[in-house]
Amino acid sequence: MAEIQLGVIEARYADMIWEHEPVTSSELVKMTAVEFNWKRTTAHNVLRRLIDKGLFRNENGLVTAVISRGEFYSMQSKKYVEDTFAGSLPAFIAAFMQGSKITEDEAEAIHKMIDSVKEE
Q: Which long-range contacts (C-beta less than 8 Å, at least 24 apart) are formed by 112-116?
C-alpha cells in the first residue's frame, strides 16, 4: 500500500472519524464546528482529502473507514522504523528505551507480544 501522510489537523480529523464511525457527513460538520471551529466547506474539503488518500469512503453521506485506525498507525510505525532505524526493530527499541525502565507487567506483556508473532 502506498504511504499515507497526514498533517496534524488531518490526523485529528481522521481520529474523530474513526472514533465515531459510521458517521454522517452532516454529523462531522457539526463536530468539526465545535472541535476545530470549521465551516461546512472546510469540513468537507478535509474529508475529501482523507478520502482521496484512501482512508475513508463517503457513500450517500455515510462516512466509514477503508483502513482502520490500528492498520493506519501500524503502517506509520513500520515506516518510521524503516526510515529511521533501517528497519531494525531492536535498534528502535534500544533508542526508545534508552534511560527508561519498564515494570515486570510491561515486560511480560512485551514477551507475550513477541511470542505471538515470532517465526517458528
A: none
The 10s digit of each residue's pLDDT in 8-59 is: 999 999 999 999 999 999 999 999 999 999 999 999 999 999 999 999 999 9
d(CA 112, CA 105): 11
CA distance 29 to 9: 15
Count of beta carbons in the 10 Å neighbourhood of residue 32: 22
What does the DSSP 8-state code read for residue 49?
A: H
| Lookup: cell for 98 | 534508552
Q: What phi-psi label fits residue 2: left (phi over 0), alpha (psi between -120 and 50 degrees) or beta? A: beta
Dist. CA 24–CA 107, nearest whole Å: 42
Is the C-alpha dihedral spanning 41, 45, 51, 55 positive or negative?
negative
Between CA 48 and CA 22 the distance in angstroms is 16
Using the predicted structure, report yes or no on whether residue 2 has a pLDDT greater than 70. Answer: no
Element (H, E) at 62: strand 62-65
| All three cell numbers of 57 | 469512503
